[in-house]
Amino acid sequence: MKSAAMQYANALADIALAQGAAAPVIQQLGDFTAAYRGSAELRNVFSSPAVSKEEKRKVAEKIAAQLGASKIVRNFLLVVIDHQRTQLLPEMFTSFQSVLRERQGIAEAQVYSALALTDAQQKEMTRALEQATGKKIETKFVLDASLLGGALVRVGDTIYDGSLRNRLQVLRERLSAE
Length: 178
Prior knowledge:
Layout: H1 2-18, H2 22-38, H3 40-47, H4 53-67, H5 71-82, H6 89-103, E1 106-113, H7 119-133, E2 136-143, E3 150-155, E4 158-163, H8 164-177
Parallel strand pairs: 1-2
Antiparallel strand pairs: 1-3, 3-4
Helix pairs in contact: 1-6, 2-6, 4-5
């Protein structure tokens, strides 16, 4: 099912980027997805075979109107309903965010450090990561006292480990090998 969610996400990204509406579509689809996740009743309506497609479409239209969703988001939701894929909506939203970031050359980074970094250190870390990856980096800084010192950085599937804990482990392995 992951590939189905990715197909819908790619199609929506094509439209949102072509119309210059990526940011509003993320917000609006995120709002709808949050309502879907938060309401067992809504999930039941969309998954029930006893509820007709027309009724499901009306419910989606009503919620989309309340959320101020654009025509792009409304049409997307109707297609999802017509193809009976509403159960994939949360996964589609997550995939859509990833696809947009990738197409816009944006990467997300988590920086784990033993101590809180100053604003200047955070800016320098972000700049260095942008230089290393060639992408615009959205950085999230997290405190992790178990690192002892230094930092551990995760950008996608890549991990840069400059932590004191890692350095001590490498040293320990070298000494035990001799």
